[in-house]
Amino acid sequence: MAEAEPLEMAYISEVILKKRKHKEESIALTRKSQLELGQHGGKKRKVEDIKRPEQLVREFRERELDLIRMKQRTKRAKSALSTPNSKLLFVIRLHGKNDMHPKTRKILYNLRLTRIFHGVFLKASPGVLELLQKVEPYVTYGYPNAKNVSCLIYKKGYGKIDNKRVPLIDNNIIEQALGKHGILCLEDIVHEVANGGPHLREILNFLGSFSLNKPKEGLQGKRALFKDGGDTGTRENQINDLIDKMN
Q1: CA-CA distance, 149 to 161, in Å (whole number)?
Q2: I need a surface site. Which of 48, 74, 84, 198 has the fewest CB within 10 A?
């Protein structure tokens, strides 16, 4: 019986073999670094970053208590809501992090107050005042004067175009977004907002939130109402003093 001919080994070029070796070494080094840093190469978690069961329970109770208090505030008589003295409100978020109920957070997000020390202009109405009453422990608000309206828009003004924040440094941006309403430049925006013009709602929808500075003084660090010696709730015309410190 004739001997079987030996099978010829497939030829693999030296370049391919070097690439394969380099890839294997790279995988080994990556795996080694992952084991040193932790699973999937993430940073080692600090002990203080790990929440204990009692901390999770406390945060859950705080969120539920926040919901109960919000419902209690909404049961106040409608007459308790202050009648707006102006068409324009400026609202600043002062508090709120892990202790907020999801419903409270949703209201703040709907008001475009997604971060602490962010402020927004809002058109004063019973509906808006009712929403502010629900999130009263986390915000303060009042009636901005023409000077602060102008300073805020010129210094920290942003517009929203395609869900992106765009600095108001070019009047072409304003004309593109609001030209159909006769608003062509930054001066037109300031005039319309300060005087509560007929296109105030369209302008406020265009303007983004204002990122303010943390004041060095002027806040008590209390969630009590401003009229009771705290920081939150309505300040009426005294909101201008706080804006001056944060702008």
Answers
A1: 21
A2: 48
